[in-house]
C-alpha cells in the first residue's frame, strides 16, 4: 500500500517536474521567439506653428514611453518640425504638456532631438529609412538598423487620403512610403516593423504596403478625421490628439517585463472614445499578433547570456616612456593680440590669383580684331606694329 | 602582444601596440558661479566650468586616453586639426544699456568660430564635416552652415579663422542636455546640479557656450595644454517668474539646492558681486561669509563674497539659501555706463530696397578708441557699397581700414570689415543701402512670411579702462576675469554684438503652381478636346424614331408589301 502511494507520489512528482520544465521551455521559447536583437524607433512630427502644439506633444509622449521602456537615445531618431517648448508663445518655457492642468511634462529634462525645424523634410525622412545619407552625417542622425532590428515608426501631423503633409510645404504619399519600406526590406534593414500613424484618414497610408513583416496601426479610416483631445486654457491650444492620448495611457501601464500583446494595442481607443475608428493591418505580418509582445517594439529588452567560464588575463603591459625630456628647445608661445590696430591698418591686401581672361572677354576681343582686319585689310598690319 | 586585457586607467588599447600613453598630471578642473544683481532688478548668473588637458596631437600615437576631457570633443579636435573652437547658443538679446557688459559676449542664435592648424589643406571640406559633427553632438541645426553663410575675416577674430556669424536658432533643453553631458560630473554633483532647464529657459537671456583653445601651461609658455571652458550665462527676471518680492535665493532661482562640490573639481566657488553694497545698505547675504575677493574685470575693480563649496562649513544649513531683502530704488543711474554700445536697424519701406543703419556709441568723456566692425550680410541682400557712409557728430569719418569681399549669389555672403576711430562722447552712424533679391521657388523656407535673418554685426574694440588691468596671465585668477588675456594695462578687450535683423524678402504666392496646373489642364481639356472632336469626328444624320402610330402603320404597310412612310 505504502509502495503504491509512493509510486503515486513519485509519478505525481515526475509529472510536476515535466510540467514545470515545459513551462520553462515555453517561457524560454517565448523569450527567443521574436528573433530580434535590437530595437530602433523613428518618431516624426511633421507640423509647424504654434497651433499644432498637439502634434509635438504626441510625438514626445511616444518618445517618453519608448525611452522609459528601455530604448536608448542612440537608437531613437526624433524629428520635430517646430519647437514648442521654447517657443515664445509658451507660457511655461521648456515644457510640453500632454494632460491639461499641466500634469505631465512630456518634454522632460533629458531630451535629444535629432532633426529639428527645417531639417524635417520628406527627403530627410526617406533618406533615414533607406540609409542613403551623406557621409558626414553624425551617428545620432542615422538609422543604423540591421536585419535583426525591430523598428517602430510613428508619424503624426496633418494628412489626407493617401498623403501626409510635411511642414505645410510638401507631402509624402502612401506609394512612396510603401516603396521606402520595400527598399528597407531588400537591404535587410529590419526584422519586423510597426508603423503607427495618427493623422486624418490615416488608414490610407498603409493601404499600399507590400513588404513582409509589417504591422500598421492608424487612428482613423479613410473619410474620417482624427480629432484632438482637450485644450488647456492656460496654454491656449489643444494638447494632444485623442488616439495618442489613449495610447499614452495604455503605454503608461506597460513596464519592461510586461506580457501584453498586440491584440490589446488594437483595442486602444475604441470609437466611443476616439470618435474616429482606429484601424490596423496585420496581413503582411508573419507571426500571430497575439504572440507579439508590446515590448518587442516599444521596449528594448536585451537578451543576456550568462557564462560560467573563466577568462585568463595576461600580464599587465608596461608603460611607454613619455619622450618629453629629449625634445628640442621649443619656441615660446604667446597669446595673440586681440585687436592689433597698427597691424590691421598696414595690412597688405591679399594678392589675388591671376586667372586667364574669361571666355566672353576673349571672344569680344577676337571679334573686334577680326572686324578691324576685315575692314582695313591685312597689309596695314606692318604699319601698326 | 596584449589581447583583451583590462588595465585600470586605460580605456582602449589598439591591437598591436605595446602600451598606452598615461597622463602624468591630474587635469585640474575648476567650476565657478558668479551672481551679480543688476541695476534693472534682474539677476545675472554666470557658470563656468574649465577642464585642462595635457596632450599633444602632433605626436604619432593616437590619443586614446580620456579622463575628464570629453571624448567626443577630443576626437573632434584631433580628427579635424582644430586649433581653437568657439561655439555658442544664445536665446535672447543682451541689453547692454540696462545690464552693462557681459563677462562673455555672445550673439543671439548660434555662432561657431574655428581656427584650423596650419597643416590643414582642405579647409572647406573639413569645415563642412566639422559643422555636421557638431550639429550631431549639440542637437543643433548647424548642418545648414555652408559656404553661403560662412566668412573668413581678415582682421577681426585674431588669429585668422573661419566662422559662421549667427544663424537663427531656437535654443532649448535639447541643446542643454548634450552640453551638460560634456561636464566631468554631468549634472549629478557640484554646480551643475543647479542647471534645471525649466528655470533656465524662463529667463530674459540664456546663453551656453563651449570654448576650446590652447593655453600656456606655465610662465615661460614653452608648452601648451588644451583648455575646455563651458559657460552658461543666464539673466533672470524675478518679477516675470512670479516672485514679486525683491528677494532671491538659489532655490528660488534654480529650484535646486547645492549639497556638495563635484568630487573631481579642484576648485568650486560661488562669487556674489557686492561692490554696490559696500556698506550693506542694499542687500544682505545669508549665510554670511568672511571670504572676500577682489578682481579686475571689464575695466572695473569689483568686490566679491566667496563661498567655497569644497569646504564643508559652507553647507551649514540644509539648503544653501541666500536671502536678499533688496530695495532697488531709483538711483539706477549710478551704474557704470558701458563705454561701448551699439545698435542696428533696417530703414526704408517696401520690398525692394532698404538701408542698414549701425550706430556705435562712445560714452567715454574724453578718450577716443578704435573699433573694428565686422558685418556679414547674406547674398540675397545686395549691398551697394558706393552708398556706404560713416558719420560721427555730423561729419564724415573715414575708416582707416576697409576690407570688403562682395558676395556671389548662392555661394558666399558679403563681408565688410572696417576699422573706425570713435571720437569721445559721440555716436557714429554707418549706413548702407541694399536691394532685396528674389529667391528661387525651392529656396524659400516653409514659413517665408516670417522673414529672413541677417546675423549680428560684431564690434571688437580695445576700450580704455578705469583701473589697471592685470597683464600677468599665468597667475591663478577666477575664471570670469581671465578669458580675454590683456596685453596692456590701460585698456581691455571688449566685443559687442548688435541685434540681428529680420528682413522680409518678396515672397511669391506658393499656390501659383497649383493654379497654373489647374488652369492649363482645364484649357487643354476643354479647348483641345473640343477642337479634336470637331476635326476628327464624322457626323451622320440620324432620323428621329417615329411615333407609335406611324410605327404601327409601317408594320401594316410592310405586311401589305407597300414601302413604309
TrEMBL record, chain A:
Pathway: Glycolipid biosynthesis; glycosylphosphatidylinositol-anchor biosynthesis
Gene3D superfamilies in UniProt: 3.40.50.1460
GO CC, alphabetical: GPI-anchor transamidase complex
Keyword Signal part of the UniProt annotation: yes
Residues annotated as transmembrane: 359-378
Keywords associated with the record: GPI-anchor biosynthesis, Membrane, Signal, Transmembrane, Transmembrane helix
GO terms assigned for molecular function: GPI-anchor transamidase activity
GO biological process, one term: attachment of GPI anchor to protein
Active-site residues per Swiss-Prot or TrEMBL entry: 158, 200 (nucleophile)
Keyword Transmembrane helix: yes
InterPro entries: GPI_transamidase (IPR028361), Peptidase_C13 (IPR001096)
Subunit field text: Heteropentamer. Part of the GPI-anchor transamidase complex, consisting of PIGK, PIGT, PIGS, PIGU and GAA1. Interacts with GPAA1. Interacts with PIGT; this interaction, via a disulfide link, stabilizes the expression of GAA1 and PIGK and links them to PIGS.
Similarity-based family: Belongs to the peptidase C13 family.
Protein's UniProt name: GPI-anchor transamidase
Underlying gene: pigk
Automatic annotation (TrEMBL), chain B:
Pfam families: Gpi16
CC terms in the record's Gene Ontology section: GPI-anchor transamidase complex
Domain of life: Eukaryota
GO BP terms, alphabetized: attachment of GPI anchor to protein
Alphabetical list of PANTHER family matching this protein: GPI TRANSAMIDASE COMPONENT PIG-T, GPI TRANSAMIDASE COMPONENT PIG-T-RELATED
Protein name: Phosphatidylinositol glycan anchor biosynthesis, class T
Amino acid at each position: 500500500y505504502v509502495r503504491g502511494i509512493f509510486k503515486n507520489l513519485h509519478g505525481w512528482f515526475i509529472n510536476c517536474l515535466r510540467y514545470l520544465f515545459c513551462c520553462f521551455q515555453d517561457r524560454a521559447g517565448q523569450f527567443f521567439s521574436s528573433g530580434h536583437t535590437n530595437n530602433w524607433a523613428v518618431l516624426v512630427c511633421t507640423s509647424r506653428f504654434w497651433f499644432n502644439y498637439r502634434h509635438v506633444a504626441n510625438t514626445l509622449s511616444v518618445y517618453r514611453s519608448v525611452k522609459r521602456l528601455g530604448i536608448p537615445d542612440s537608437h531613437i531618431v526624433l524629428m520635430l518640425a517646430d519647437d514648442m517648448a521654447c517657443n515664445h508663445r509658451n507660457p511655461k518655457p521648456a515644457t510640453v504638456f500632454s494632460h491639461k492642468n499641466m500634469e505631465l511634462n512630456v518634454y522632460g529634462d533629458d531630451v535629444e532631438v535629432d532633426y529639428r525645424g527645417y531639417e524635417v523634410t520628406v527627403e530627410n525622412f526617406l533618406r533615414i529609412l533607406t540609409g542613403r545619407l551623406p557621409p558626414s552625417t553624425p551617428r545620432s542622425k542615422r538609422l543604423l538598423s540591421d536585419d535583426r532590428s525591430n523598428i517602430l515608426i510613428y508619424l503624426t501631423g496633418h494628412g489626407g487620403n493617401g498623403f501626409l503633409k510635411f511642414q505645410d510645404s510638401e507631402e509624402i504619399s502612401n506609394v512612396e512610403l510603401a516603396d521606402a519600406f520595400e527598399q528597407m526590406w531588400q537591404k535587410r534593414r529590419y526584422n519586423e516593423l510597426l508603423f503607427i500613424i495618427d493623422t486624418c484618414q490615416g488608414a490610407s497610408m498603409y493601404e499600399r504596403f507590400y513588404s513582409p513583416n509589417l504591422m500598421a496601426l492608424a487612428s482613423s479610416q479613410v473619410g474620417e478625421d482624427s480629432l484632438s483631445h482637450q485644450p488647456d486654457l492656460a496654454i491656449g491650444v489643444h494638447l494632444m490628439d485623442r488616439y495618442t492620448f489613449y495610447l499614452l495611457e495604455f503605454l503608461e501601464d506597460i513596464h519592461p517585463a510586461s506580457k501584453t500583446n498586440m491584440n490589446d494595442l488594437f483595442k486602444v481607443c475604441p470609437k466611443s472614445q476616439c470618435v474616429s475608428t482606429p484601424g490596423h493591418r496585420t496581413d503582411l505580418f508573419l507571426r500571430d499578433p497575439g504572440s507579439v509582445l508590446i515590448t518587442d517594439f516599444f521596449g528594448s529588452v536585451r537578451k543576456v547570456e550568462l557564462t560560467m567560464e573563466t577568462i585568463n588575463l595576461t600580464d599587465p603591459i608596461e608603460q611607454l616612456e613619455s619622450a618629453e625630456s629629449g625634445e628640442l628647445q621649443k619656441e615660446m608661445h604667446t597669446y595673440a593680440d586681440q585687436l592689433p590696430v597698427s597691424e590691421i591698418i598696414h595690412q597688405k591686401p591679399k594678392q589675388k590669383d591671376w586667372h586667364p581672361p574669361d571666355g566672353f572677354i576673349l571672344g569680344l576681343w577676337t571679334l573686334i580684331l577680326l572686324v578691324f582686319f576685315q575692314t582695313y585689310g591685312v597689309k596695314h598690319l606692318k604699319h601698326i606694329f | 602582444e596584449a589581447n583583451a586585457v583590462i588595465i585600470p586607467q586605460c580605456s582602449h588599447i589598439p591591437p598591436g601596440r605595446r602600451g598606452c600613453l598615461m597622463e602624468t598630471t591630474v587635469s585640474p578642473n575648476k567650476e565657478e558661479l558668479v551672481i551679480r544683481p543688476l541695476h534693472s532688478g534682474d539677476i545675472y548668473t554666470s557658470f563656468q566650468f574649465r577642464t585642462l588637458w595635457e596632450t599633444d596631437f602632433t605626436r604619432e600615437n593616437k590619443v586614446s586616453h580620456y579622463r575628464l576631457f570629453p571624448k567626443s570633443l577630443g576626437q573632434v579636435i584631433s580628427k579635424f586639426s582644430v586649433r581653437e573652437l568657439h561655439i555658442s547658443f544664445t536665446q535672447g538679446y543682451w541689453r547692454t544699456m540696462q545690464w552693462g557688459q557681459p563677462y562673455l559676449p555672445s550673439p543671439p542664435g548660434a555662432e561657431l568660430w574655428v581656427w584650423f592648424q596650419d597643416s590643414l589643406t582642405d579647409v572647406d571640406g573639413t569645415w563642412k564635416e566639422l559643422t555636421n559633427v557638431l550639429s550631431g553632438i549639440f542637437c543643433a541645426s548647424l548642418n545648414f552652415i555652408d559656404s553661403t553663410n560662412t566668412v573668413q575675416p581678415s582682421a577681426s577674430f585674431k588669429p585668422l579663422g573661419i566662422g559662421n556669424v549667427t544663424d537663427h536658432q531656437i535654443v532649448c533643453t535639447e541643446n542643454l542636455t548634450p552640453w551638460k553631458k560634456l561636464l566631468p560630473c554631468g549634472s549629478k554633483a557640484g554646480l551643475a546640479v543647479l542647471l534645471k532647464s525649466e528655470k533656465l529657459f524662463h529667463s530674459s537671456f540664456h546663453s551656453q557656450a563651449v570654448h576650446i583653445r590652447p593655453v600656456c601651461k606655465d610662465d615661460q609658455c614653452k608648452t601648451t595644454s588644451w583648455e575646455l571652458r563651458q559657460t552658461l550665462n543666464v539673466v533672470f527676471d524675478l518679477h516675470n517668474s512670479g516672485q514679486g518680492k525683491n528677494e532671491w535665493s538659489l532655490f528660488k532661482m534654480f529650484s535646486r539646492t547645492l549639497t556638495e562640490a563635484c568630487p573631481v573639481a579642484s576648485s568650486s566657488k560661488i562669487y556674489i558681486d557686492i561692490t554696490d553694497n559696500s556698506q550693506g545698505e542694499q542687500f544682505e547675504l545669508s549665510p554670511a561669509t568672511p571670504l572676500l575677493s577682489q578682481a579686475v574685470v571689464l575695466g572695473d575693480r569689483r568686490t566679491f563674497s566667496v563661498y567655497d563649496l569644497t569646504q564643508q562649513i559652507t553647507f551649514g544649513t540644509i539648503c544653501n539659501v541666500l536671502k536678499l531683502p533688496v530695495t532697488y530704488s531709483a538711483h539706477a543711474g549710478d551704474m557704470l555706463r558701458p563705454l561701448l554700445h551699439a545698435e542696428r536697424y533696417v530703414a526704408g519701406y517696401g520690398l525692394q530696397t532698404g538701408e542698414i543703419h549701425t550706430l556705435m556709441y562712445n560714452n567715454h568723456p574724453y578718450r577716443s578708441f578704435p573699433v573694428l566692425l565686422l558685418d556679414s550680410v547674406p547674398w540675397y541682400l545686395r549691398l551697394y557699397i558706393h552708398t556706404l557712409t560713416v558719420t560721427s557728430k555730423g561729419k564724415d569719418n573715414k575708416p582707416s581700414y576697409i576690407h570688403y569681399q562682395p558676395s556671389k549669389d548662392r555661394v558666399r555672403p558679403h563681408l565688410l570689415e572696417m576699422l573706425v576711430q570713435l571720437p569721445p562722447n559721440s555716436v557714429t552712424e554707418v549706413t548702407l543701402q541694399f536691394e532685396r533679391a528674389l529667391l528661387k521657388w525651392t529656396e524659400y523656407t516653409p514659413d517665408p512670411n516670417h522673414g529672413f535673418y541677417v546675423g549680428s554685426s560684431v564690434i571688437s574694440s580695445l576700450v580704455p579702462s578705469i583701473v589697471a588691468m592685470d597683464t600677468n596671465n599665468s597667475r591663478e585668477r577666477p575664471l570670469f576675469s581671465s578669458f580675454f588675456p590683456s596685453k596692456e594695462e590701460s585698456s581691455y578687450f571688449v566685443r559687442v554684438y548688435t541685434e540681428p535683423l529680420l528682413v522680409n524678402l518678396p515672397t511669391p504666392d506658393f499656390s501659383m503652381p497649383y493654379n497654373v496646373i489647374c488652369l492649363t489642364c482645364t484649357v487643354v481639356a476643354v479647348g483641345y478636346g473640343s477642337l479634336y472632336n470637331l476635326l476628327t469626328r464624322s457626323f451622320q444624320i440620324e432620323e428621329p424614331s417615329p411615333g407609335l402610330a406611324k410605327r404601327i402603320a409601317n408594320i401594316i404597310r410592310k405586311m401589305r408589301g407597300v414601302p413604309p412612310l
